[in-house]
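Reposting from the mailing list since nobody answered there.

I have sequence plus structure tokens for a pair of proteins and want to know whether others read the tokens the same way I do. The first protein:
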Amino acid sequence: MKITLSSLLFIISLPVFSYCTGDSLSYLTAKDTIFLHVDDFGNKIFEHQMVEGQTLYSLARFYGLKINGLLSYNTHLDPEIGYAPGTIINIPIPDSSILKTRRIDDPNVGYIPVRYVVRRGDTFYHIAKHFFNVHLDTLQKWNNLENTMMFSGMQLHVGYLSLEGISDSLQLSNSSPLAAKMLSLQREFGYYKSYDEPSFQNGAAYWQREKTGKSDFYCLHRYAPVGSVVHIKNPMRNKHIYAKVIALIPDRAYGDDIIIVLSPSVAKFLGARDPKFYVELEYFD
């Protein structure tokens, strides 16, 4: 990998990675930087660290969200208990709210930088075209890069965000079909979890690799009621997903070691390669 001296100085001079933004009077200030990552469902997520004087309701409003929408991205929160300063809040940032027409040397009055933190497996092309819809030459010029080689943890400048926050109209358009489906299933699972503790299970999942079809996120389980939602995790690949139970596993149709049967869409999302693979489940019975 070849990086110019100016690129190296640019990387070294980047602000120390920090989630903390704003103060007790505002949620963004001119000295802040927004750091983004893309989650498994395609959402661009900013992790905001709460400070004294900030509230979940005003935070949600600043970023164009309803409180229930904010909580759906933060299942670790209990609004009745509240939060302590330092609590991390996941904020979805719609791509349409990221301004990409300003040059990096333009005055930044009213806007703050948005940076993407490169993950293992990312490619420059995928980040530019699929994550942020930026021309490759533009992204390369913004970051003073001689080539498009990257490394995990690298911070790429991808645009600017207004100090005034995000309008609710932009947030309403912020969902891919997959993200919308997953968010709906996650909300349903979270709703039932607020009333009942889920059961835990681990063991072998099964799916048919040769089967094709539309992107349906369903499963068969031995105990979970039909119509309920199961939270499925593949710890080997650090991926998780939600799926709707459409039927019970038929008796003698699968071995006793199979605890769940997955649709191809669910299995592929979890990174499955073999017909059987290890999973961990949360479900309601």
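The second protein, same order (residues first, tokens after):
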Amino acid sequence: MSYQLPSLNALRAFEATARHLSFKEASHELFVTPGAVSQQVKALEEELGTPLFRRFSRKIELTEAGQHLLPHVQQAFKGISEAASHLMERHQAGTLKVSLPPAFAIKWAAPRITGFQQQYPDIDVHLHASAKLVDFSKQDFDLAIRWGFGKYPGLRSERLLSVNFFPVCSPKLKKGPHPLEKPSDLKYHTLLHGENRHEWPLWINALGLQDVVDATRGPSFSNDGMVLQAAIEGQGVALGDSILVEKDLHAGLLIKLFDITFPTNVAYYMVCPEERWDLPKIKYFREWLIAESQKTEMVGDHDTRDYRLQDLLGLV
């Protein structure tokens, strides 16, 4: 439906002038000159074909036409204002649904989320832990955290946390019958694997220990959180993601072995459609995530050798 409407600026000038019965007071409210307000009102009167004010030397009064028009204009502006406020509130408050990898959710995000809720009590965050990539066109998510190189066609991404890898185990395992003093000592211990089982063979081969340590043996788990929990329980040695093991290292539940770290180009990224990137509730959460990431230590110095784990893993 097509509507034939007067200028909205002229209607705003009329409504403010009618409320104050003063061009000067209306100009203060609208941040323009009194002359500009008077011209806008005069243009509206000419467009409508009727005077809206009686002008006297020191005051103005609404005409009958002005009295008739005023409540309709105010009602229309109120409706627009309420609709706009409602839309803004929907994006500033309510539920924020975030998809993220299970281990990252448990080990990094969940322990910190209370801080965001205290800062933004009107936004209820729903963390959905899943290894599957969310499809924003079909699923109702506001933001996702992904592990990789940040190349996600059709989506905007921003690096959150860089990642490196190193062996970890429980303190009691390191000091057990076969102390873990050097990488070759792994031959006496169980290796704990992720679901795809390729990290340990690559790490062992990169050190030239494939004839000493059988990197194919040991149990595997469907997510990294389970791998790390098995390591905490002393069931074997895990190849840890520096972000996921941070709190367990500080708590003394795990220890870093050998001072050898795989530097990589992989990282955790914040991801969502471009058009939603700056919606207030998403922006607030992104800014909070960045602030939290800056508090996170990158555990362990890099070994001087360049293992180029991203090439070894075949990641692009």
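Reply #1 (J.P.):
I read it the same way you do. The chain has three domains: 8-90, 94-158+271-291, 162-266+296-312.
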